[in-house]
Design brief:
The protein is an all-alpha fold. The chain has 36 helices and no strands. Helix 11 runs parallel beside helix 13 and helix 33 crosses helix 34.
C-alpha cells in the first residue's frame, strides 16, 4: 500500500529545495538597474581609456534582464577587436545577432562578423553577406555587403590560376560590383571595385562605363574619369564630360561640349543635369548676360525656363517685369512659375498699382500656397491692405504670415508691422538656454539611457531621427554639422512646431554665447544680431574658409582684420589668429561696429554692407527707388546680398522668438 503522506512530504521537500535553488540563482543573477548602470558606465569609461580587457569583463557582467545587454555584447566584440582577438569578437557578434535578431545592432554585428570571417572562412561570411542583402536591401550594410560578397567570389576564382571562373559566376560578381557603384560611387571600396570589375573580362556597356567614370569623378579622380569617358558615345556622356573637363580646368573643351550637348542632346537627360551644365557654361563665360542670351537662341526645350529665370533675375530693374511676365506666360505651371508670378506681383507694387497687385497676389496664394515665395506674397498682401487702411485684412495677412511661416524673414517683418515697431531691432538681449535632448524623456527609452552614458557611437547607430543625430554631433562639439543637420531636418517639417519645441535650439544654437555677448557689448552691437550673423557666415565652424579667402567664425578677410586690429589696437597680426574664436569675434564685432557707424547706425544697411561692401551699399541707397526698408531689401541688386540680409534677419527673428519669448 502506497504511503501518500510520506510521498507528499517528499514532494514538498523537493519543491522547497527547488524554490531555494531558484531564489539563490535569481539572487546571483539579479541586478538592480542602478548597479547595471554603474557597471555599464565604468565599462564604457574603460573602453574609452583603452582598458579593453577590463572593459570586456565589465560588459560581460551586465545582467541578461537589462535592455543594455545586447549593446554590452556588441561592446564586448569591439573590445575583442581592439585586442586583436578576432575569434572572441566573432563569437560575441554571433551571440548578438543570433539571440537578438530584431535588435538594430544585429545587422551591424552580422556585417562585422562576416568581414572578420571573409579571409579564413569565406563560406559563412558569404552566407551572412547574402542574408544582409536580402533582409536589409536599402541599408548601407547591404551596399557594403554587395562589394564584400563580390570580392569573396572574385578571390575564390582568381587566387588559384588553375581554377576556371565560370561565365555565369562572373556575371553574378559583375552585378554585385555594379550595384555597389550605383549606390556608393565614391565609397570606400569604389576604386577596388572598379579594378576587380574591369579585370573580369566581361563585356562593359556604355552605361557601365558611365557608371565607372562617374565613380572616378565623384572620387576626384578626374584623369581616370576622362580616360573612361573616351570609351562612351558623347550623346550619352556629355553631361559628365562637361563636369569632368570643368573639374580638370580644361575650360575650352568643357565649354564646347556644353554648347554642343545643350543644342543636340538636352532632351534626353534630366532637367537638373541640363541646369547644372548651364551653370557651368555661364561660369566659364566672360559675360553672364551674353552667355544666357546665346544659350536661349540654341536651346529649344529643357533648360529654357531655367535660362529665362536667370535672365530675369539679372535684368535691369526696368526690364524685370516684362521678363518675368514672359516667363510666366510661357511656363505657367513649371518649376520657376511661382517665383515668376511673385516677381510680377512685386513689379506691380513698385509701380504703385496696388489694385492689380492684389489680384495677382490672390492668384499666387491660391495657385502656389506652399511655394518658397508664398511668405513674401502673404506679407506684401498685408502691406497693400495696410495702404488701403483695411485693418481686418492686413491684420489677418500679417498673422497668417506669422502662423503659416513662423520661422521666416517675412514673419519677422510681419511682427514688426503688427507691433508698430519702426526699428528693425526688437530686442538687444536673449536668455541663454542650453541645447537639450530634442524630445521629452521617457523612463524606459534606451536612447535616453545611452545619451546619459555618452555612448554616442552606438546611439548614432541605433537612432534614425535627424534631430537626435544633430544632438549627438552637438554633444561631440561638432557645432557646424549639428546645426546643418537640424536645419535641413526642420525644413522638411510642415507645419512647423511651436517655438518652445526643443528641436529649435539645435537649429538656432547659442554657440559661443559668452564671447559674442562680451564683444558685442564692448562694441555697442546688438547681441542677438551678431549671433545671427555668425550663424549665417560660418555655421559656427571656427575653421571655415571661403573661396574668396574669408576665414573664421565671422568670415573676415585677413587684410580687413589686420586693418581693424591696427585701428583699435586689438593685437591681431597673424593669419592663424583669425581661427581663434575669441580673436575672430573681437575683430568681427569691431568691424561691424565700424560699418554701422559709417551708415548712421542702420543695422539693415550694415548687414547688407557686411556682405556686399559699403561702396555697393551706398550706391544702392542712392539709386534704388524705395519708400521703406521692405522695398529697399526686395530691390537690392545683388541676389546674394538680398538673400543674405533676409537670412541674417530671419536668424535674428528666430533667436529672439526662441530665447526671449516673442511670438
Amino acid at each position: 500500500m502506497i504511503n501518500w503522506d510520506k510521498k507528499r512530504r517528499i514532494l514538498a521537500g523537493i519543491f522547497a529545495v527547488l524554490v531555494i535553488f531558484a531564489v539563490v540563482c535569481f539572487a546571483k543573477i539579479y541586478q538592480p538597474s542602478v548597479k547595471t548602470d554603474e557597471i555599464y558606465t565604468q565599462a564604457l569609461n574603460d573602453f574609452n581609456s583603452g582598458k579593453y580587457q577590463n572593459s570586456y569583463y565589465l560588459f560581460s557582467k551586465v545582467t541578461l534582464f537589462s535592455n543594455l545587454k545586447p549593446i554590452a555584447i556588441y561592446h564586448q566584440a569591439e573590445c575583442a577587436r581592439m585586442l586583436d582577438d578576432n575569434k572572441s569578437a566573432i563569437k560575441q557578434y554571433q551571440l548578438l545577432f543570433n539571440n537578438y535578431p530584431k535588435h538594430k545592432l544585429s545587422v551591424r554585428a552580422k556585417y562585422l562578423a562576416a568581414q572578420l570571417l571573409a579571409e579564413e572562412k569565406p563560406q559563412p561570411a558569404q552566407k551572412y553577406f547574402q542574408e544582409i542583402i536580402e533582409k536589409y536591401p536599402d541599408s548601407d550594410y547591404a551596399t557594403g555587403a554587395e562589394y564584400q560578397l563580390a570580392s569573396i567570389i572574385y578571390n575564390k576564382y582568381t587566387k588559384d590560376p588553375k581554377k576556371i571562373f565560370p561565365q555565369s559566376v562572373k556575371l553574378e560578381t559583375e552585378n554585385y560590383f555594379r550595384h555597389y557603384l550605383e549606390k556608393s560611387p565614391n565609397g570606400r571600396w569604389a576604386a577596388n571595385c572598379i579594378e576587380k570589375w574591369l579585370s573580369l573580362g566581361t563585356k562593359i556597356t556604355d552605361d557601365d562605363y558611365l557608371l565607372i567614370a562617374n565613380s572616378f569623378y565623384q572620387s576626384g579622380e578626374y584623369e581616370k574619369a576622362e580616360e573612361i569617358l573616351r570609351k562612351v558615345s558623347i550623346s550619352d556622356s556629355w553631361v559628365l564630360e562637361v563636369k569632368n573637363l570643368y573639374a580638370l580646368k580644361n575650360y575650352p573643351a568643357a565649354k564646347a561640349y556644353a554648347q554642343s550637348g545643350l543644342e543636340k542632346y538636352s532632351s534626353y537627360v534630366e532637367n537638373q543635369d541640363v541646369n547644372d551644365v548651364i551653370d557651368i557654361y555661364i561660369k566659364m563665360s566672360s559675360s553672364q548676360t551674353d552667355a544666357i542670351n546665346y544659350l536661349l537662341t540654341k536651346i529649344q526645350s529643357k533648360g529654357k525656363d531655367y535660362l529665362l529665370s536667370l535672365k530675369c533675375a539679372n535684368s535691369p530693374e526696368n526690364e524685370k517685369f516684362s521678363c518675368y511676365n514672359n516667363l510666366y506666360l510661357a511656363y505657367p505651371n513649371e518649376q520657376f512659375s511661382a517665383d515668376a508670378l511673385a516677381n510680377i506681383f512685386f513689379g506691380k507694387i513698385k509701380l504703385r498699382d496696388y489694385a492689380n497687385a492684389q489680384k495677382i497676389g490672390k492668384d499666387h496664394l491660391e495657385k502656389f500656397p506652399d511655394s518658397a515665395s508664398s511668405p513674401m506674397v502673404t506679407f506684401w498682401m498685408g502691406k497693400i491692405a495696410e495702404y488701403y487702411e483695411d485693418y481686418n485684412s492686413y491684420t489677418n495677412y500679417y498673422k497668417k504670415t506669422i502662423t503659416r511661416f513662423p520661422d521666416t524673414y517675412y514673419a519677422y517683418r510681419a511682427y514688426l508691422r503688427l507691433s508698430r515697431i519702426n526699428n528693425p531691432i526688437i530686442t538687444s538681449n536673449i536668455n541663454y538656454k542650453q541645447v537639450e535632448y530634442p524630445y521629452k524623456k521617457s523612463k524606459n527609452n534606451i536612447i535616453i539611457k545611452l545619451a546619459e552614458f555618452k555612448d554616442y557611437d552606438v546611439l548614432n547607430e541605433l537612432c534614425e531621427d535627424e534631430f537626435i543625430k544633430s544632438w549627438i554631433f552637438y554633444k561631440k562639439g561638432d557645432y557646424s554639422r549639428s546645426m546643418l543637420i537640424a536645419r535641413d531636418a526642420m525644413e522638411k517639417i510642415n507645419p512647423k512646431p511651436d517655438k518652445y519645441d526643443l528641436r529649435w535650439r539645435l537649429v538656432y544654437p547659442l554657440n559661443y554665447y559668452d564671447e559674442i555677448k562680451n564683444y558685442s557689448g564692448i562694441t555697442g552691437n546688438n547681441f542677438p544680431l551678431i549671433m545671427s550673423l555668425v550663424r549665417e557666415e560660418s555655421y559656427f565652424d571656427t575653421l571655415a574658409q571661403s573661396s574668396a579667402g574669408a576665414v573664421g567664425l565671422m568670415q573676415l578677410m585677413p587684410s580687413t582684420a589686420y586693418e581693424i586690429s591696427s585701428k583699435y589696437g586689438l593685437g591681431i597680426n597673424s593669419y592663424d589668429a583669425l581661427f581663434n574664436p575669441a580673436a575672430n569675434l573681437k575683430a568681427g564685432n569691431y568691424y561691424y561696429s565700424n560699418l554701422r557707424s559709417m551708415l548712421s547706425g542702420y543695422d539693415i544697411s550694415a548687414i547688407a554692407a557686411y556682405n556686399g561692401g559699403i561702396g555697393s551699399l551706398q550706391k544702392w541707397r542712392n539709386t534704388i527707388n524705395y519708400n521703406d526698408t521692405d522695398e529697399f531689401v526686395e530691390q537690392i541688386p545683388y541676389l546674394e546680398t538680398r538673400n543674405y540680409v533676409r537670412k541674417v534677419f530671419r536668424s535674428y527673428w528666430n533667436y529672439i522668438r526662441i530665447y526671449s519669448g516673442n511670438n
